[in-house]
Amino acid sequence: MSILATILESKKKEVAERKSRVSSKDLEKTGFFARNCHALSTSLVQPASTGIIAEFKRKSPSKGVINDALTVEEVTQAYVASGAACLSVLTDYPFFGGTDQDFELARRANPNTPILRKDFMVDEYQIIEAKAMGADVILLIAAALNPDEIKHLGNLARSLGMETLLEVHDEQELDRSLGDFISIVGVNNRNLKNFSEQNVETSKRLAERIPQSFIKVSESCISGPKTISELREYGYRGFLIGESFMKTDAPGKALLEFLNQE
Ligand SMILES: O=C(O)c1ccccc1NCC(=O)[C@H](O)[C@H](O)COP(=O)(O)O
């Protein structure tokens, strides 16, 4: 079984269990549900935007433990101070060591910055959860959902005031998944079948195929400032980066160094 299939199987069980504890109706009365969201699309197209979507990532299936010594508040506040355009906070626990509490702590510590809830969305319940925990953006992974599911979940997110980052890995996923309920397309460079890719060739290959009306984000395996400069030439406005920052003792400083060297 592929790692994505394993994650999705586990996620469906987790969501069923969560639903049995708190109903969506109750979620709608909690936390940040009524809050107005920040727009990632607006943040990325500002002339002075760094475009960096900086991720808080403790561990991953491809790398194991990356950094479990730092708190979510210190990392995310340092990212914002260094110029992150957006934060990404993982809420998947079994595979990435993230929690809902991480997300809520990041939200409270960074009230003025867009934050992506990074998880494997398989059910509308998770979209409602995302709004309640203070998310501005959700991730929909084309490899994990059929076009009708993407449309349904994307429209639900939009109806709640959130944006969707649609993640694709290849031409087929891109062509079958785009719609007017999406404004931001992320090309994930990591090959989830064997974790072989360690470069951004997939982003370069798909760049021309993404219609101009969508904001392009390159995700994963971005190892240095030179890569960001190259991706900008292909029209990318956003750069989702986790490991390159998190593997250091000071992820915020690492982000600043990227920007200073670009
Ligand atoms: O990171 C993984 O190993 C991984 C494995 C299976 C599914 C998804 C995975 N990563 C999710 C991501 O999208 C990345 O965390 C994100 O793009 C940042 O990537 P990186 O800069 O390479 O840490």
Automatic annotation (TrEMBL):
Substrates-to-products reaction catalysed: 1-(2-carboxyphenylamino)-1-deoxy-D-ribulose 5-phosphate + H(+) = (1S,2R)-1-C-(indol-3-yl)glycerol 3-phosphate + CO2 + H2O
Key word Lyase present: yes
EC number annotated for this UniProt entry: 4.1.1.48
One term of GO molecular function: phosphoribosylanthranilate isomerase activity
Domain Indole-3-glycerol phosphate synthase: 4-254
Enzyme class: lyase
Pathways per UniProt: Amino-acid biosynthesis; L-tryptophan biosynthesis; L-tryptophan from chorismate: step 4/5
Pfam families membership: IGPS
GO biological process: L-tryptophan biosynthetic process
Keywords annotated in UniProt: Amino-acid biosynthesis, Aromatic amino acid biosynthesis, Decarboxylase, Lyase, Tryptophan biosynthesis
UniProt-listed PANTHER family: INDOLE-3-GLYCEROL-PHOSPHATE SYNTHASE, TRYPTOPHAN BIOSYNTHESIS PROTEIN
Name of this protein: indole-3-glycerol-phosphate synthase
Organism the protein comes from: Aquirufa rosea
